[in-house]
């Protein structure tokens, strides 16, 4: 639905998000700090999906469905040594790369439900996070 706001047209947009955790160890290669040593985190992952309309029940996407889909992806990482999980056997298991990994695994599950996966946020410690999204070029 297009709404008028002043002189600009605005498109109505809805967004839902869920947050889950997983525990895993990693080491960052060629990083130059103590993070090169084996260490672990209780990772916090948030996923956001959205669309321009609500279904007949008045929802964009059911939180339970989004959470269940995210859990399936995180189960691949939970209680692992991330450096042994593809693609992290060849790229650093940084928060940025983990966010991209989760996004790419989660996106096909979300698209099937008729909404768009907007972004994934990954935090390895309080106050620090990385975000991955796909943005169109204008």
Outline the structure in words.
- The chain is α+β, with helices and mostly antiparallel strands.
- It has one domain: Tetrahydropterin Synthase, Chain A (2-Layer Sandwich).
- It contains 2 helices and 7 strands.
- The chain is elongated.
Briefly characterize the structure.
The protein has about 140 residues and is α+β, with helices and mostly antiparallel strands.
State the main characteristics.
alpha+beta; 2 helices; Tetrahydropterin Synthase, Chain A; 7 strands; five-stranded mixed sheet; elongated; two-stranded antiparallel sheet; 138 residues
What is the topology?
Blueprint: E1 2-5, E2 8-11, E3 14-26, E4 39-51, H1 63-75, E5 80-81, H2 95-111, E6 116-125, E7 128-132
Helix pairs in contact: 1-2
Mean pLDDT: 92
Bulk shape: elongated
- Unreliable residue runs: none
> What structural class do you assign from the helix and strand content?
alpha+beta
CATH topology: Tetrahydropterin Synthase, Chain A
Helix content: 10-25%
- CATH homologous superfamily caption: 6-pyruvoyl tetrahydropterin synthase/QueD
Major beta sheet, strand line-up: 5-3-4-6-7
Distance between the termini: 21 Å
Question: What's the CATH architecture?
Answer: 2-Layer Sandwich
